[in-house]
Structure formats: C-alpha cells, structure tokens
C-alpha cells in the first residue's frame, strides 16, 4: 500500500449553490456512496490560499497578529492571503502577501508543504512557502483596511513557536503546520531539499 493521497471523484446526482458570498460560496451535492445510496454533502467552495513562513537570519519567524471574527480570537499567524485570480501563480501571490502584510521581501523561496485545511467541509487548498533572505521592501507601505488596521508584527524564534504550539497557545493552522513542517524538514533531508517554489500544485493548477 502506497501512503499517498490520490485524486478521485464519486458520482454527483444533483448539485445546488444555496449561498454565494464575496469570496466563497456554499455548495450542496448529492453524492453516490459505494453501496449505491445517495448522501447529501454541504461544503464551502474556496478559491485557495497561500501562506509564507518567513525565516530571518536569527532563526526567527515573522508573525502577524490579527482578529478573526468567526473564532472570536486575535490569532498569531504567518502572512497569508487568497488566490483571488483563477490560475494565479501561487509564488507571485505569496510574494504579494509578504509585501502587503509585512513590507518585507525574500530572496530564497521554497515550497514547505501543501494542505487541505478542512477537507470534510471546505475545498480550500493552501500552499505554505518557506521564504529566506529577508529584507525590507522598497516603496510605500500597503494601505491597511478592516481587521488589518489593528495588525501587530513580531519575530519569534522557531524553538519558542514549537513550544507554544505544543502547549496549545497558538492555533492558526498555517502557522502550526508551517512551523512543525520546518522542524521536520530540518530533521530530515534539510531545507535545501524542499520542493522548488514553482513545483506543480494539482489542487490549484497555475501558469508560470
């Protein structure tokens, strides 16, 4: 048995979109089960996202603190954002988010990991990049709005983040997955063995 996720699509007898929002929507599918029965499945349709674990020369991760209304928390997170344009190159989107949310640029980019955030109820796919060789970006800062007007920034050592993740102090999925993936990569084949920044992403195909 090969331990690898594989694409598969079961028959859909009927589908409906009862809600369409600004960025996401809700879809209802009647899906044929292996025994021939039909089950209704409701899920959020999402454009996909990118996130950036930006690591500086002192082995600190760049974090932002932002209010998240659905969970009624201010969460420490890594820079992230939606893939607003269909087929958008995820690396370009990640570079944009790092600039807009932290006014930082990076010289070295790798794919850290790809995840489905909540595959039981949402089709969101996220590509988490590792960015190194950080420096301040040039030009004017991006004009913040809404929750971002209250955003704070910090740079926190990787070891401290691991401790706080395991202690239950940090909950943002991209931060948790990104930091633990970074530690796992270091303990494995090393960071230079990570996939290149333009590696294929079947969950969200893109053009280079």
TrEMBL record:
What Pfam families does the record point to? NUDIX
**What residues does the Nudix hydrolase domain cover?**
44-178
Q: Which GO terms describe its molecular function?
A: hydrolase activity
* Any one Gene Ontology cellular component term annotated for this protein: cytosol
Listed A to Z, the keywords are: Hydrolase
On the tree of life, the source organism's domain of life is Bacteria
Keyword field contains NADP: no
**Can you name this protein?**
NUDIX hydrolase
Question: What's the source species for this entry?
Answer: Streptomyces argyrophylli
